[in-house]
Amino acid sequence: MKLKVLVDNNTYIDEYYLGEPAVSYYLEDGDKRILFDTGYSDVFIKNAASMDIDLAKLHYLVLSHGHNDHTGGLSHLLKEYENNEDLTIIAHPHTFEEKRMDDILISSPLSLEEIGKNNRVVTTRTPFYITEKLIFLGEIPRVMDYEAKAPVGIRNSEEGLVEDYVLDDSALVFTGEEGIYIITGCSHAGICNIIEYSKKVTKKDKVAGIIGGFHLFDVNEQVEKTREYLKKQNIPYLYPCHCTSFKVKASFLQDLNIEETGVGLVLEWI
To answer: What's this model's pTM, rounded to 2 decimal places?
Structure first.
């Protein structure tokens, strides 16, 4: 499988792409072409064009969760490539609900009803096999006592306005020859919870690599416990990015192999 970073907070020196504080990755697994998240805007489309990636030929769009730094480009994608009859959109059922933080709208620009008018949409809480080796995890159980304890704003649910614990936060897991590789959006569910569920779903214990946001900002007890957990996993390659602060990454360097992430990064897994 091949992964290319289309959108990240960072861009590499001598790589002339655009950046924004968001996430979008392009994946190829066999003959299947997958887009994971759409960033804030149309930056992912511009960067894809610069990388000679034809988004008109996508088979799947996977959304990690509903926040607008991951879904903001949806309207651009569906307008630009509205004639793609092969496209299936995969997400958790809460992904398209209205979400707010301090009265600021932070949700998808399009509702499920709007998207579903002209597109195939699969909403699922359970794991969904995109290919034989690539799985959308669905809703991730929260088993660690130090993760995912605080709400992130509110959401407009079927029951009305409720605190949003971002239960729609999900991830992808790829089963490779060296172990499993995990692709996250923001890890609101907790990166350790995501790892544990990935192992359970794949029935594999070895984690060979992770890329994506870890949603860790301050070096605190949660970060220390996360670092100890990751150290025990002995993961060869870690690419924490997006919503992972410099201080957190620096603290991880004591014990972990932290790699730099930026627009233009290419990873290949077998």
So the answer is: 0.96
Sheet of 24-29, strand order: 120-123, 88-91, 60-62, 32-36, 24-29, 2-7, 266-268
Which residues 6+ apart lie within 8 Å of 4 measured at CB? 25, 26, 27, 51, 53, 264, 265, 266
In three state form, how does the secondary structure of 149-208 look? Answer: CCCCCEEEECCEEEECCCCCCCEEEEEECCEEEEEECCCCCCHHHHHHHHHHHHCCCCEE
Mean pLDDT across the chain, nearest whole number? 96
Task: Read off the tokens for 155.
Answer: 């959401």
User: Could you state, in order of their start, the residue ranges of all structural domains in the chain?
Assistant: 2-268
CB atoms within 10 A of CB 232: 9
**pLDDT tens digits along 156-192:** 988 889 999 999 999 999 999 999 999 999 999 999 9
| Number of residues in the chain | 270
Among the CATH numbers 3.30.300.30, 3.40.250.10, 3.90.180.10, 3.60.15.10, which is that of 2-268? 3.60.15.10
